[in-house]
Write a structure and sequence with these properties.
about 80% helix; about 160 residues; mainly alpha; 4 helices; single chain
């Protein structure tokens, strides 16, 4: 049987090693640039290493995104009782988002001097939904804190 914790720790150390090597290389390249160097010349000197670091961050983000999706799915199928609780939580959040969507307004705004393309009903509905979702989730968090504290008094 493959020991998953050993594989993940080796993968973690490999990713950290590559990151540290890129960081040291970046500092080595940029340390010798004189202070009065023109910006365009600086970009030609260390633009390539910045590209490498940026691409490496894309790789790390991709790995993290894949892990954030795959590991909960694996856990959901290996522990079905916990999966029901997680699905109930997702359903509650979906209800909050649906209520927020119903509360959001899509009326086109009259903004003097604004000629942009974002003043359309779809964008306004979406941004209103996000605002209302934030408000509702904040109210739910405050209500749950109050419930816990009040329930402690009556125990």
């Amino acid at each position: 049987m493959i020991n998953i914790s050993k594989i993940t720790s080796v993968l973690l150390y490999a990713l950290m090693t590559i990151s540290v090597i890129l960081l040291v290389y970046f500092y080595k390249v940029t340390a010798g640039i004189p202070e009065g160097t023109d910006f365009d010349e600086q970009i030609t000197i260390y633009g390539g290493i910045l590209d490498m670091i940026l691409y490496w961050s894309y790789v790390l983000f991709g790995i993290a995104a894949i892990a954030a999706v795959v590991f909960p799915l694996v856990r959901m199928f290996t522990r079905p009782k916990e999966a029901v609780k997680a699905l109930i939580s997702v359903a509650v959040v979906a209800v909050f988002v649906f209520i927020a969507y119903m509360l959001a307004d899509d009326t086109i705004l009259t903004l003097p001097g604004y000629e942009g393309a974002d003043n359309v009903p779809g964008t306004l509905q979406f941004s209103g939904m996000m605002l209302w979702t934030s408000y509702l989730l904040f109210a739910g968090a405050i209500a749950s804190i109050l419930y816990v504290e009040v329930s402690k008094v009556f125990k």
